[in-house]
Predict the structure.
Amino acid sequence: MKKTIIVPVGEAGSGKSTFALCLSDAFLRAGISVHQRAFAAPLKVFVHEVFDIDHHSLYGPSEAREAPLLAYRDGASPAWELARASLLARGPCFVARAMDVVYGARYLGAYEALVSWFQDLRNEHEDKPLTTRRVLQTLGTEWGRELDRDLWTKWFEASAQKDEATVVIATDGRFINEAEVAHVPILIQRSHTRIRNSDHVSEQQQGTREMRELCSSRGFIVNNDGTLDELRRDADDIAYLIETRRR
């Protein structure tokens, strides 16, 4: 059976992960195999290994990624030296996997760029605490997308195609090229996301005309200003429409 890739996109705190869960439940109730994946999956594994950030901060509610990491309260905190040692040890393997899996060859200078990213991040937080979101934002964009804007989408596509599920749903779409990967892109809109740091480039493309046109023409636009039950009903309706088109 043909595989369908679905990518909900939206700002931090808009409800992408919640909608992905509701949509997954709808497909499962219809007897359709489904698996959730994330563009940031390889980043989160690496960030956990390097910075020793806990599971809740990485995978919990969106607001958890805004909480200051007390071990990294400033640039002089001992945790930074431990993280640097871990980066130097684990960085080459991370870069090799990212580049070899996606391209078939290492990207020259990627490791050096990774070390520079770490130092820039530490300098930026010389007198202020680090947050999980800032680590993920800058690793994904200032390092990864700076090397190639499609680095994470290619990694995601490679893993999605190997997935045995009929439907693969991304949980963390933000950029237009991530929405373009989808057979069905879905824009999740919410009036108040309650998330800071929205000035980062990773939070700038969701509300653009290009994103709205892409999702309205190839997928759906969902207003998440209502209740959870309303979001579930929207997910049920969309799952039904997607499956009807697949037949």
In short: Residues 102 and 154 are 6 Å apart (CA to CA). The chain has a mean pLDDT of 91. Residues 78-103 form the longest helix (26 residues). Residues 41-147 form one domain.
